[in-house]
């Protein structure tokens, strides 16, 4: 681990190496200290080998290309040149051979809190012997496709034989880790199946991982034991079958590769230890193999969750022993394992997903029983291929039951949680250490409980003593989303949208960002005007967070985007207020005033009806102008400004010289997409801002911009 961190340029990796060497010397085991240094060198070397791979597609970055390769549902693998790349949008076609065209670009990093770091994720998908995806084909259009054949094609047909489309999509996710079809399924409008699994704490069931390997190998070991097979065959046969399972049947992915490596280490330990493996040694061996082959997994969320969960599960017998003796042993073990897995992964889940399921314990207990039968039966169905319909008579009700559990538990409330900082991690580590020492009998229960409560209090105090006071301009691509955070008032102005696409910006970008910022409710949501790139995402926000009130300007009739937002407001019981010039709200010494619209008669152009807001904090002033055109900007009376949120993403039809002379902004913020085709921001607008002496901030370059209020 230390060597990999040093290879990545993180100097504190030297501290990790030093701790390892120091532990060996302190224990008077110089050989162990020497092996630690050797491990650091190997880690450094493996990281250098992976990051030093040639970028085969570099000459074509920025160009439109047509490529033919093998599509596994996640990446397109090319033979000449040998490379892997991601496709955006992800094609709906099943895995197989694809001919696809689009423009090659570099992946984006994390540009907003809680956002998806595509570049880092892609780096973690490669290894020493596996090409690292370094490019994305955007605007991907499939020209030709051919479904995969062979063993995988046969297996996939077995998973769908005689099943409904939704159940078939679920089985492909459970058995093959292919969540493409399931990601397009919804229980109801605005209630996606994948979101339900996430909110219920069951998302791990959709990842092909250790649970699948454990259930399948466990079932095989059980059968071999019942047949009286000797120890070498009982554990050796499942060990031998794991390699073809990974390379022939399922697509190689980090989660299943980790699971197979872990499974092989466990089976080897059972074989060598005659059924009694050394758990810490087995865990360390699996981690060592994984990181030598895939060094950048060290920074991958999935890797961290996997090993933290397994490490926590090693305490299962001790926690089960402290539960009431009258409870059935199986129930005590299941309860202990579920609680420990959730507690062990808490900081990673909270920090990366912004929320903690409150019903994870009962949901996992019930779903675990279903999975114990569903995974082996589904595997048998896959092996039977098109002949699997009789087996799927048993699979179908189990799949429907699992979906029903996800739907019911997914409607339960979740606990919002912002990003976990260094202080939060330190508090969690101390609390976890106290809990572990209590289970090991090293400290008393009162001392452990007091430590946990003190750490919880310390992590809660900073946000309470120093509440946020800022404007946050979220990077939502080509669109608008602005968050005002004050003690006593949280206001969201627009929430982005995706024109001509089914990508839900509200659910995939805005909601994760709000959760990462620790926003648990919105007091006022504002839909400035009926443009997709401004308000489409508000529907997801209204469904995903409690909202006190929705402000709109013109209640435009028969507009599908605005109608969807208003429908979501009705569904959640959110009152809708049609605001006019002079309306305002105030909190913590800050006043938000509506500058526009005046009301009827309405313009025939939606942009001219935008809700424009002025934010005043003492002598500091900002204006948020929606998409107002120049002809209207001069009429709203914005007055002198410290910060101007430019109208219409820097369009040449807004922010004219007369308006800038009237407002004299010191800074100007342009919310604009890096890959827009509208020519935003217009060079003439940038020149006018420069002449006016305004510093320019752009979300396509700076990402999310957080502006503290005085």
From TrEMBL:
Residues 478-674 form the Metallo-beta-lactamase domain. It is a multi-pass membrane protein. The chain crosses the membrane at residues 6-26, 213-235, 279-297, 365-384, 391-410, 416-440, 447-465. InterPro entries: ComA-like_MBL (IPR035681), ComEC_N (IPR004477), Competence_ComEC/Rec2 (IPR004797), Competence_DNA_uptake (IPR052159), Metallo-B-lactamas (IPR001279), RibonucZ/Hydroxyglut_hydro (IPR036866). Gene3D superfamilies: Ribonuclease Z/Hydroxyacylglutathione hydrolase-like. It is found in: Cell membrane. It comes from the Bacteria. Keywords: Cell membrane, Membrane, Transmembrane, Transmembrane helix. Coiled coil: none annotated. This is DNA internalization-related competence protein ComEC/Rec2. It comes from Deinococcus petrolearius. The lineage of its organism: Bacteria, Thermotogati, Deinococcota, Deinococci, Deinococcales.
């Amino acid at each position: 681990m230390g060597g990999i961190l040093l290879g990545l340029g993180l100097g504190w990796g030297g501290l990790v190496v030093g701790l390892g060497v120091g532990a060996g010397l302190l224990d008077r085991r110089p050989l162990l200290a020497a092996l630690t240094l050797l491990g650091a060198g190997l880690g450094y070397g493996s990281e250098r080998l992976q990051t030093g791979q040639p970028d085969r597609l570099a000459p074509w970055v920025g160009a439109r290309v047509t490529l033919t390769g093998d599509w596994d549902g996640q990446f397109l693998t090319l033979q000449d040149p040998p490379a892997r790349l991601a496709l955006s949008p992800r094609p709906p076609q099943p895995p197989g051979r694809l001919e696809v065209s689009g423009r090659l670009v570099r992946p984006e990093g994390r540009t907003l809190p809680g956002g998806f770091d595509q570049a880092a994720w892609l780096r973690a998908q490669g290894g020493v012997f596996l090409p690292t995806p370094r490019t994305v084909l955007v605007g991907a259009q499939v020209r030709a496709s051919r479904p995969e054949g062979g063993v995988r094609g046969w297996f996939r047909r077995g998973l769908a034989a005689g099943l409904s489309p939704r159940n078939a999509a679920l089985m492909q996710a459970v058995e093959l880790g292919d969540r493409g079809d399931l990601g397009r399924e919804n229980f109801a409008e605005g209630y996606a199946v994948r979101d339900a699994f996430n909110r219920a704490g069951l998302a791990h069931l959709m990842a092909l991982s250790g649970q699948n390997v454990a259930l399948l190998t466990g079932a095989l070991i059980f059968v071999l034991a019942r047949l009286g097979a000797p120890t070498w065959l009982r554990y050796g046969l499942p060990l031998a079958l794991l390699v073809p399972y990974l390379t022939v049947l399922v697509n190689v992915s980090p989660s299943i590769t980790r699971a197979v490596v872990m499974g092989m280490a466990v089976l080897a330990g059972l074989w060598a230890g005659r059924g009694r493996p050394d758990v810490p040694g087995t865990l360390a061996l699996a981690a060592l193999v994984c990181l030598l082959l895939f060094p950048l997994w060290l920074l991958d969320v999935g890797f961290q969750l996997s090993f933290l969960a397994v490490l926590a599960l090693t305490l299962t017998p001790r926690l089960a022993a402290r539960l009431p003796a009258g409870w059935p042993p199986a129930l005590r073990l299941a309860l202990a394992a579920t609680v420990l897995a959730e507690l062990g992964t808490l900081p990673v889940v909270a920090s990366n997903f912004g929320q903690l399921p409150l019903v994870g314990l009962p949901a996992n207990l019930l779903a675990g029983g279903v999975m114990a039968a569903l995974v082996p039966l589904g595997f048998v169905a896959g092996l039977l291929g098109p002949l699997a319909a009789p087996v799927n008579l048993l699979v179908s009700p189990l799949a429907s039951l699992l979906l029903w559990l996800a739907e019911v538990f997914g409607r339960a409330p979740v606990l919002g949680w912002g990003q976990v900082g260094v202080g939060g991690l330190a508090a969690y580590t101390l609390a976890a250490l106290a809990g572990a020492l209590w289970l090991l009998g090293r400290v008393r229960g009162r001392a452990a409980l007091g430590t946990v409560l003190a750490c919880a209090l310390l992590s809660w105090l900073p946000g309470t003593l120093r509440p946020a006071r800022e404007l946050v301009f979220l990077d939502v691509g080509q669109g608008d989303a602005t968050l005002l955070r004050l003690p006593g008032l949280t206001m969201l102005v627009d929430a982005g949208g995706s024109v001509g696409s089914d990508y839900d910006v509200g659910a995939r970008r805005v909601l994760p960002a709000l959760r990462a910022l620790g926003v648990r409710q919105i007091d006022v949501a504002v839909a400035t005007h009926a443009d997709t790139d401004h308000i489409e995402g508000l529907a997801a926000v209204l469904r995903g967070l409690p909202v006190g009130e929705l402000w709109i300007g013109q209640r435009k009739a028969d507009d599908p985007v605005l109608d969807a937002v208003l429908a979501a407001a009705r569904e959640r019981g959110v009152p809708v207020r049609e605001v006019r010039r002079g309306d305002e709200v105030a909190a913590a010494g800050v006043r938000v005033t509506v500058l526009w619209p005046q009301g009827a008669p309405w313009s025939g152009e939606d942009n001219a009806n935008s809700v424009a807001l002025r934010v005043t904090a003492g002598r500091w002033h900002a204006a948020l102008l929606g998409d107002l055109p120049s002809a209207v900007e001069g009429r709203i009376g914005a007055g002198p400004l410290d910060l101007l949120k430019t109208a219409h993403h820097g369009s040449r039809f807004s922010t004219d010289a007369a308006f800038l002379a009237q407002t004299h902004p010191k800074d100007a913020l342009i919310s604009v997409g890096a890959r827009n085709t509208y020519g935003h921001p217009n060079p003439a607008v940038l020149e006018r801002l420069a002449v006016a002496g305004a510093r320019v901030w752009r979300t396509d370059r700076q990402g999310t911009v957080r502006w503290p209020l005085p």
